[in-house]
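Running this now, will post back.
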Amino acid sequence: MGSTHTDTNSNSSIRSVDRALDLLTVVCSEQYSSSGCSLVDCAKTANLSPSTALRFLRSLTQRGFVSRDEDGMFHAGTELLRLGASVLSRSNLMRIAMPAMRSVVGDINESVYLAVRNAEGDCLYIAIEECSQAIRHVSWVGKSIPARSSAAGQVLSGTVAFGESVIERNGVEPDVTAISSPIFVAGRPVAAMSILVPSYRMDSGKAQRCEASLVKACQEVSQQLGA
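Update: finished.
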């Protein structure tokens, strides 16, 4: 009897997972990517009753995997996008971004970083292209820093628009100036590309050159990723 009860519970749990994944697949499908998916369409496509679909969608919404707009349409949620960006950051993002980062270093001869958000919402540095300057920023690859007061943190929080950049002087470290610009996928920032420069080398002319090169690189990477 105990084994049968356990098997029944296990099968029920597997069915619940399958239903939730079916609904996520529907909501994230290309057909509904721009307008969102109604409850009726979610239920019909996933072969569920509206009441069952709504129960699962509410649970997914509470966890951030699905969001619901004021018109009642369901969309991919921020947590799902964050997880997707995390996977992307370890594969295509680095492969595509590194040549662009080298191009920026070639333009301005300063070190360039690539950062994504970690599970705590802070900035995780995942790659660097170093410059040839004798005095340059020490590598932060593998290090997480608080998002507050950092240029990359502003970018990853979504406050910097596509095709723009932000400059932060003495933010995380004294005597260091950071310029950061977003890499977008599906209309959302998934990574920040940043130039870190000893502040004594950063005048207004160099800041303009850094921003122009960085923004161009980030736009190119975003386009290759399907922004």
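Strands lie at 66-68, 74-76, 111-117, 123-129, 144-145, 166-169, 176-185, 188-198. More later if anyone needs it.
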